Amino acid sequence: MIIDYCEQEVVEGKMQLHIGLQFEDEPDSLYVAELAVDDEGVVTEWKLFFNGFDCKYTFRPDEKEACIHYAAEQGITIK
C-alpha cells in the first residue's frame, strides 16, 4: 500500500481523516480511506472509497497500522 496524502476535516461536528492511497497490485487506481475519529482520537469507522463509491473493504491490521503511522507523521495522532 502506497499512501499519498492525509487530510483532516470536521463534518457535522465530528472529525474525519481522508487518506489517499494505492495498492501495489493496482498502481493506476487511486483510493481514499475515510476514517471517523472520536474526541479521544480513536478511529470508530474505517471505509474505503473508489470514485466516490464505498468499496465495503475490510482493512487488514497492517494496513490500519500503516495509515495510523502515516497520519502521525503528518502530525495527526489517532488510535
From TrEMBL:
The lineage of its organism: Bacteria, Bacillati, Bacillota, Bacilli, Bacillales. This is Uncharacterized protein.
